[in-house]
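Appendix B, example 12.
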Amino acid sequence: MTTQDEPRAEEASTDEPSRAARTPAEQARRRRWLKLGLFVGSLAFMGLFVLPRVPRSQHVRVHLGPGSSRVVQLTARVSRGGALDRESSFRFARGAPPSLAWDFELPNGEAELEIELASSTGISERKVWLDLRGEEANVEVGEALRALP
């Protein structure tokens, strides 16, 4: 008779008790920690990915300065990432005021602002970069006003 040695399965000893051996209090504690971890993870996800994309109220004040009465139309465009996000046009029967406020909703971040000034004799443009933060951003367009024919 020949006997073959069968491989023996070694029992792995663990310090942690099996699921069946855990007490209900330990299981409840584990569930609480799991729920807390999921809650904290979802808050982190919201803070990193969702909240920065939420539109916020933005305030831009365009300063034309002296000679603003020559401007009969002002067109303002905001673009982020090359795509036009907001555009507004203001018409003035008796000329523009020295300062103009523009309010709109966009997420915070860098944006390109294009201001187009039109008078009865021509058009002038100015582009500036803004860091939108929900605070009032001031833009000086006196150079564009002086460039009007």
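The chain has a mean pLDDT of 86. The helical segments are 24-50, 142-146.
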